[in-house]
Write a structure and sequence with these properties.
The chain has 2 helices and 14 strands, in the order βββββαβββββββαββ. The chain is mainly β and 203 residues long. The strands form 4 sheets. A 4-stranded antiparallel sheet has the order 3-4-5-6. Strands 7-8-9-10 form a 4-stranded antiparallel sheet. It starts with a strand and ends with a strand. The radius of gyration is 18 Å and the shape is globular.
Amino acid sequence: RLLTLRRSGDSERVLGPFDSPAGCLARIKAQGPEEEADRLCLCCTDGTVYVYRDSPEISKSEGDSERRLFSWRAHQANIFDCQAVGTDRLLTCSSDGTLKLWDLRDAEARHVATFEKKNYPFHSMHLVFRDDTGSGCGGGAPGARVDDGVGNADADADAEGEEEEGFVSGLRGAGEGILVAAGGTTGMFGTPWFAQVIDFSVL
């Protein structure tokens, strides 16, 4: 179970082997001269995330072990989607019913916050920031609009409000915008297909 990367005008590079197939990729761009390379985040179907150095200057002879920075078990099920958030965070989307935000500033992953929709597997997501906001925005005041797309907006708000507030504040640390995550399962006993909308603009 290997992943082959091909860059225009460059030879292919192979990462792995992995214990399970790779599901998605996200790139965190290097910031400033102190960071010598981008970071490539590779998420697998067993819920594991691998973080690699990635730059044209890295020797083609370097193998997986030389380029891999660290890895961790981020979810209990398949990671279907991932996306870089700002300059040092990663957002992951899993069929275990959670969206998780991770801080990758150090040589390990630190869990920032989780948004959970119990028994509703997430399959995809799209994060869009407003053009006039960027990294460095403060946490802001709580109170984002959360809509699950199936007529249950603000359901169990009292019980889950604190968790949602932490998740929204974590996203807002990189700017203002909106996150849409979709999921569901098929079959007689499956969950309805849904779209979860999280607006993390400062209200």
